[in-house]
Design a protein that fits this description.
This protein is mainly α. It has 2 domains: about 35 residues; about 60 residues, no CATH class. Helix content is about 30%, strand content about 0%. It has 2 helices and no strands. The N and C termini lie far apart (about 40 Å). Keywords: Signal. It comes from Aegilops tauschii subsp. strangulata.
């Protein structure tokens, strides 16, 4: 069963990457046709925005956010960018 799941995920990744590579040259021209990025994965793509969930794990208090303007905690476990943020900048999304 795990082999089938790996094959399915790999196939989906190939299809998505092929679709993104055929974006009519929109990447980098300021005329991006892509309006959002959905990232699936583990903690490397999860900034930890869970302020609206019933959970013990929170990041809306110091020292989280100490590197942001004003030092205000935003609820993110990461003070830096996660891969989804970098991809959004590359695709020139808001």
């Amino acid at each position: 069963m795990p082999d089938h799941a790996l094959l399915l995920v790999s196939s989906m990744l190939v299809v998505v990457m092929a679709h993104l590579s055929c974006a009519d040259g929109a990447v980098g021209t300021g005329k991006s046709k892509i309006s959002a990025v959905f990232m699936f994965g583990d903690s490397i793509v999860d900034p930890g925005n869970n302020n609206n969930r019933l959970t013990e794990a929170r990041a809306n208090f110091p020292p989280y956010g100490q590197d942001f303007p004003g030092g205000k905690a935003t609820g993110r476990f990461s003070n830096g960018r996660v891969p989804g943020d970098m991809l959004g900048c590359l695709l020139q999304l808001k």
